[in-house]
Amino acid sequence: MSFSADLRRFNRKTKDSLDRTRRIVIIKLFSAVIKDTPVLSGRLRGNWQTTINSPATGVIGIRDEAAAIAEVQRMAAQSKGSDVVILRNNLPYAYRIEFDGWSKVKAPQGMMRRNVARFQRLLSEAVREGRL
Q: For residue range 15-47, what is the model confidence (pLDDT) as tens digits?
């Protein structure tokens, strides 16, 4: 095998490994945010929307946590390396629960902030899982 063929193979393996790691991180981080969302009626938890390259606008009807996580997995799988994958909740009280202490018992550190703080650990786990 030639040196240039070896470089192409290395490049392909590296890109595949990075893409796999990126998708694992998206799934782990977004799923953790969804699962950490406090539940009263379930509407807030089910209203997390995952999109690619442009944020969701508006709210959706009632759906369960599993459907929201399935959407995360679908969008992660469809995304490419240069895409921005966005998790957003447009319910008006989502911000209040995240920042204003509306859920002192179930989500005192919010949903997003808590998981972004754990990002480094999630990334390290994903790197281990994404290795070839």
A: 887 888 889 889 999 999 999 888 777 788 899
